[in-house]
Amino acid sequence: xxxxxxxxxxxxxxxLLIGILGAIFFRNNIYVWTLGDVGTLYMEAMExxxxxxxxxxxxxxxxxxxxxxxxxxxxxLGDMYYRGLGIAQPDYNMAFSLFKKSADLNNTxxxxxxxxxxxxxxxxxxxxxxxxxxxxYGAVNGNSQAQVCLGTMYRRGLGxxxxxxxxxxxxxxxxxxxxxxxxxxxxxxxxxxLGISMNADLAMYWYQKAAALNHSKAQYNIGVLYxxxxxxxxxxxxxAEWLTKSALQGEKAAQFNLGNMxxxxxxxxxxxxxxxxxxxxxxxxxxNNAKRFLSHLEQHKEIxxxxxxxxxxxxxx
Length: 317
Fold this sequence. Notes:
By secondary structure, the chain is mostly helical.
């Protein structure tokens, strides 16, 4: 009787162990089965996201992201945490964790975002070397935004040796994918002779391609070229037109310099009220010179720092 009892206990233990191991091994499949039609659930999540029903979207993506192989859902959920969509405020720690899981499954967008977080120190200790690693992984695997970021790392010498030629090459590769940041930065490289011979005509060409796709910095940079008479005729009225297009999209450098143009009456009729408006918009975005100039205007002081020649400078990404 004791032997039979021991035998039964042993058999039951084996079945229990097999059940536990099976549950562990097939855990993901079991979880997917409990969700029902995963494809429909994903489409619903994307529909909520597109319609800016972020709380519903984040709830659905949380279910989907728990699937081991749901690479893109982990990325999407991480991006929502990163940008604070559907939650009270951005959660960089959660975003980093989700990007890491997605990147471990070779998602290049996740690698790019990890690079940004390491570069800016969002949810992690800033680390240019790790940022370079993630941008490089994304770039060599064809991610155009990672290619732009890697180009910038080379251009500025962050996490690697400064190399303008490599920066130019990575920007050029990004433009082959139609990346507008790459187009703008390629224009910057041509305009300044970085990694390539200086060529104002090609700088204008790439800025115009990006501006045609509504890139605010490229619109601003076209204005700068008109103010300098490079790759086009000198024309401050045209400069003001392009700066206005950029400023209306919220580009603070354009807002500040448009304020200067209205303050000085360069390319536009002098209008201190408009100058104050553009300074204020730029100041609200943290533009330090705009804050100073706005303070002077409010105190009815002359802005002595401004030169009557009106000098502005190109900006990259």
